[in-house]
C-alpha cells in the first residue's frame, strides 16, 4: 500500500502543469488558484472526517498564516507562469524550493550544511539556469522567457515557506489537519481579488467539461497528494521515496510532450538531469552519516 500511495502522489503532482494549462482555457490564473485550494479543502476534509470522525481547523497559529501565504504565493505565481509558458515549466519549482530550504536551515535554524549540501545547491541552481535559458538568445529571454522563469522561482520560494511552516506546525498538529487549516486560510487569501474582477469573474473562454474537470482534479491533488505522501513515507524506505518522488519531473515532461506537443530540447533535458542530480545528492541517504542539510520533501 505504501508504494501505491507514493506512486499516486508522484503521478498526481506530475499532472499539475497539464491540468493548469487545460483549465486556463476557461478561467484566469486567480480562479485556478482559488479552485486548487477550495476543492482541496473539500476533499481533504472529507478524508479526515471519514478517518477521524471530525476535522480540526486551527487558524489562530502564526505559522498557519505564514504557511498559507507561502502556499498562496506558490500557486499564484506557478499558475500565471504555466499559463504564459509551457506546462512543464513548474519542474523549476522543486529545485528552487530545495535551495531556499537549504539556506533557511543554515540561516534560521543554524544547521550545519555539509559540502555535499552546498554541491547539491549549486547543481540545483545550475539546472534551473540551464532550463530557464533553454538555448534561447538573450533578447528573447528579456522579452518573455525570462519572466516565466522568474515567476517559477518566486513560486519555489513560496513553496519553501510552506514547507518551513510544516516543519514548525508538525510539532503541535498532525499532518492532515495542519494541511487542512493551511489550505483553508489560503482559500481566504486568494479569494480576495476575484470579486473585484470585471471580466466575468475570471472567465476567459468557453466552459468545457475538460476544463471544469481539470479544476476539480487540481483540488483533488492539493487535498489528497499530501495525505498520500505522508502515509507513504511511513511505509516505504527513504531511498525509494527520494527516487520515485523526484521522478515526478520526468513524468511532467512526458505529459507535456504527449498532451501539448511541447518541445523537448537538449538544454531542457540537460538542465533537468543536473538539478535532479542535485536534489538526489541532497536527499539520498549516505551510509554511516546523518543527513545533515537534508530538506523536507516537496509539497505540491
From TrEMBL:
Pfam families membership: EamA (PF00892)
Record's keyword annotation contains Endoplasmic reticulum: no
Membrane disposition: Multi-pass membrane protein
Compartment annotation: Endomembrane system
Residue stretches making up the EamA domain: 1-131, 150-283
InterPro entries linked: EamA_dom (IPR000620), EmrE-like (IPR037185)
UniProtKB keywords: Membrane, Transmembrane, Transmembrane helix
Superkingdom: Bacteria
Record bears the keyword RNA-binding: no
PANTHER family, per the entry: ACYL-MALONYL CONDENSING ENZYME-RELATED (PTHR22911)
Similarity comment: family membership: Belongs to the EamA transporter family.
Record protein name field: EamA/RhaT family transporter
Organism: Paenibacillus nanensis
